[in-house]
User: Fold these one by one.
Assistant:
Number 1:
Amino acid sequence: MKRISFFFVAFLFSFPIFAAQNIDFVDIGELDRTIVFDIRYATPNNFTGKIIYPAARCLLRRDAAIRLLNVQEKLEKKGYRLIVFDCYRPLSVQKRFWEIMPDERYVADPSKGSRHNRGAAVDVSLADAEGKPLPMPTEYDDFSEKANRGYKGASPEALKNSAILETAMKEEGFEPFPTEWWHFDAPGWDQYPVSDFPLKRAAGCED
Ligand SMILES: [Zn+2]
């Protein structure tokens, strides 16, 4: 009986501490209706050619989510919107990616864990005010040097859009990933633990 009460008390206390550090996971789709969702791994339109996620959801650690919502708010004032391709990715999905492409240039080794497995990384792009995707240097998940942030061979319009996105993300503390124009890490991303809970459909969501 004493054992049960101890665990019960520990259970109760774990929640406020967890929330206070803003490391709990939140669903961007429940907090914002203006970000454009194009969760590629919930469709066959990704490098695997298969539907990997059972739900097109963007879950992030609360601190990263707040920052992303701030980016969206600032971009909206300038006539743009964020497009989100990928957020939290379960570790078991990372293992599947690794089976398909065991090359660290393109896919993070699951024994180390991807930044996305920690829930503090986002893959994003830029749309106009109507949600139409704007030209960017490459397609998403283009595994070539053309996706590098230093690559200057893209059209001036694409380079400008990429710079607008990067500036907006950096202003909210996100760190741009050098070899992928779409990838950004929230501050302290490496302090979050790797997670592996499944990405399920939201409760009450029928589509
Ligand atoms: Zn990424």
Number 2:
Amino acid sequence: MHQKQASIYQEFGLSFDYFGRTSSLQNHELTKHFFERLAANGYIEERPIRQVYSLKDERFLPDRYVIGACPKCGYEAARGDQCENCTSVLDPVDLLAPRSAVSGSTELEVRTTKHLFFRLDALANEVRTWVESHEKWSRLTRSIAMKWLNEGLNERCITRDLQWGVSVPRDGFEEKVFYVWFDAPIGYVGATKEYSDQAPDSRDWKDWWLNASDVTYTQFMAKDNVPFHTVFFPAMILGTREPWTMATQIKSFNWLTYYGGKFSTSQKRGIFLDDALELFDADYWRYFLLANSPETDDASFTWELFATMLNKDLVGNFGNFVNRTLKLTVAQFGDRVPDGGSPSELEEKLKEDCQRVLAAYRHQFVNLEFRKVIQALRELWSLGNVYLDRRAPWNLVKTNRTEAAMVLRTAINLIKCFAIAAEPIIPFSSARVFDALNLAAGERREWLKDEFDLYSYQPGRQFTVPEPLFRRIEKVEMEELQLRFSGR
Ligand SMILES: [Zn+2]
């Protein structure tokens, strides 16, 4: 699964300094360290609880390993913690005709067993103070954290009767492992340590994680994970009484829905990663998902919106600008950037507009406001098309070739600027533009300088006209997709 995940991320153009895993030796060791610190500080308690035991399997069954009929809706394969069909929260003993998920055996009985509990309640005030000190978190992140804190925190069981996981360093717990939400967040530290252990002379994981005053730490997640990152994990850190780095910013998202409902693998409703890349290049998905990020509310995926937005922004705005500029230049002046003399006030104004929009674009990135990031990018691209339409070099070339050449030189420079700006959003398409312009590695990040240079791509540079960067999604195709993924 680790390999599978890594390759999906790679295909979508996500890059990692290091893609670690929670099953690493480093994470096992760090998890034990956290546990021992919490135990030494009095935040771990051992308690007996009553739990389902399978005689055939000779083991205790975690809630999810007990299967039976849901007492609420009758669904036959409900799990002991929750019914997948009607979403009722259940207790394993509620299930009708319960059986073991391991062997299918119905020889079950309720026995007493010991588990470890984390005293979340004893750290509630400290967690609240920490949450309240982060006024810049989004409303979604803060409201979920405060809801949990206001409802009151209880001790939480941190051990499970499973074979797979991080083992518990305590006598009598040989058959148990830590609850996944105990060791998973420690995996952030563990992965950094894996990374640093590969080159211990050049980096030290502690520079990021211990006594690190100059680290800005941003976490991204869907809203169901917010309680673990605003309450549970911070409490674990605070309870160690050690100076671990805690999150500076927590960016959370609402749900992406499929036509207002749930995506469902079992009902084949919605589009999933395996099909997504076979249908459209990664850039289409990246662009659409960022433009429609469920930031303030849930967002709905529809094929109509997908087709409309991509046709308009990628095909009509960016792709069209690139192609019509380069094609016209080749037809009129050949495949080298023409010179054409000095720019006018119009170009000076264009430069100022680009600078203003680029500043807004950067600002929205820093603020992690992804819908607004895309709005700014769209506005930037539009500046190019508005400029080209106003200057109409296809007409100008008949009356003033020198000025037409200058206009096309300006437009080609805009292409470079647009592709560099768009790279974090649509990296594969930007790379194709970089290749068409024969940009050197160092040229591909020029826009990050404070002062925007509109004419850095010099006359005489050779380029090629790329194949259209994006393809139009026609109504017929859109309707086919709608039908294919409707789950009907
Ligand atoms: Zn049910």
Number 3:
Amino acid sequence: MSTALVFREDAYARACDATVLEARANVLVLDRTVFYPLGGGQPGDTGRIGGLRVVDTRKGEGETVLHIVEPDAPLPAPGTRVRAEIDWPRRYRLMRLHTALHLLGAVVGAPVTGGRIAEDKAHLDFDIEMERLAKDAIEERLNALVRADYPTRTRWISDAELDARPELVRTMSVAPPRGAGRVRLVEIPGVDLQACGGTHVARTGEIGAVAVTRIRSEGRHNRRVTIALID
Ligand SMILES: [Zn+2]
């Protein structure tokens, strides 16, 4: 059983038609989906499948995606054709913030120890001395990269190629999914290149103005830089 991941080829797909493969408790598995499952620091999508509210999305066994619906909802039987539609305004904000984190990593240029994206803000943790993090300078360089409107591109490499180029795994704690034999690279040409399975905007200009809202120490080797979208 596997789910075709529409978001992986087209992050802008808001809806798709699909067939129910499995329905149990409050979980639906489809043959294809636009719903991104929690992973890589990016939350799982919410939305609707048929008349059901999807409250979260997780990875399942193998290449499956688990759509978690409200408890006690009557589920469609396997074989039923359904329409799957994500909460697009929420996802689009996550895409903008996710792409902004790629820029933040490039601006700070220190090893990344972790990261997380929420609908209203996102952060990366860096292994760096506090004195090297100047809020105003980071914000200015971040917004310059946004205004320069760089494209984002994806391509695939094998697991073996990734092993040979460990620098492409920027964040160990949010490493991209492996095991399918190939890993997706996300490139912002001249700015950033890393393995990443998340959803990104097509051009950095779509991020819009960004603020660095906080820089604080999170333990001896962790400096957390938090950003937010201004609109
Ligand atoms: Zn990414």
Number 4:
Amino acid sequence: MASPASGISLDPWFDNYADRASGLSASEVRALFAVASRPEVVSLAGGMPFVAALPFDKVRSSVDRVLRDSGPSALQYGSGQGLPQLRERIVEIMALEGIRAGVDDVVVTTGSQQGLDLITKLFVNPGDAILTESPSYVGAMGVFRSYQARVEHVAMDEQGMIPQALTERIDYLTRQNVPIKFLYLIPNFQNPAGVTLSAKRRLDILDIAKAHKILVLEDNPYGLLWFDKPPPPAIRSADDSGVIYLGSFSKTFAPGLRVGWVVAPHGIREKLVLASEAAILSPSSFSQMILSDYFEHQDWKGQIDTFRGLYQERRDTMAAALASFLPGVSHTMPLGGFYMWLTLPEGLDSKEMLPRAVTELVAYTPGTAFYANGEGQRHLRLAFCYPTPEFITEGIKRLAKVITEEIELVSTFGPPASEIAQATNVDSSSPGVN
Ligand SMILES: Cc1ncc(COP(=O)(O)O)c(C=O)c1O
């Protein structure tokens, strides 16, 4: 790997790294965690579930029962594919989103993040293209970069990815002879834009993918966290031969157990198990047993209802605070999940503005984190999952001060004030994604 331009590196092993290590750089979200975790900062940055709402006495009784009833086997290596009793539960959970699968179709992973890693490892050679929404999940793009993939964003609007834009991007890449390995989609309450792919577009996009023999990777950690009504059925429910599905217990239960899963067409599933065994031998037996016990003995559906109510209240609080303190800034209105996506007035740059925001004790994730190509300066992601409603209101108040001062600065030194006045009057119901 080439040395940095200066020729000076603090790392004496710099020249020894494999080429693929050049894709590993700290994400903007990661760098933020240190700052945002200071107690005086209202963090609207990280997508951390509000695990404090879990019934801890019940979780503890599951842990105790696992240790009492399963003894040493709870602490032993397990099957590479995952515990059959948990896979049975996963099949039931996926049925809630219209997916029919057998216990043998499921591969348990260490979070869905490991599923993303394994699938990219199986399919992507350096320079291969992966199609994603525009913007897309920062953690997925980190994985794609680490395998030297070429991330190709496809435009979206308030109904999710635009099928016409997908066709155009596929045609363009095909003309350039760039192999397209898969289409990565987060159809429900997307991270970061908060939008949901419409039922019609799910089918249209699936048709396009099939026509071009492109595998679809459907990542759905938020699907059960809907507010007023469930999202359309999962894409996987319409096709089990061309869609790989990723699920997770991180948002509906707890990310600390690190349990997710993959459902893949038969041949891919076999390879996935081998790749997972090569990477980690087996997913955590203890975590899987705790989850199985919890699902067997506790009212997990009631708990998901509790999470839904809590997140809906926080979304409403955030929307109300934005309407009062930042009436001219447009944002998406998610129907579930954790995130809102803001579009700033012309001339503002969310990444440049962040240090001032932190000085004002509020943190967010700059839009650039969610693009592989440096776009996104005018956007930012706000997560409403973790702070209490009071903190959300206070955080938006602080953010409004920063944005208002930034507008004044830009109008003094940047684009003409007329342009800014126009931009700040954006209809707040308009989609915040381009
Ligand atoms: C869209 C998406 N996919 C995958 C993940 C990773 O989740 P897990 O904790 O299951 O690894 C996240 C986490 O934020 C996410 O937002």
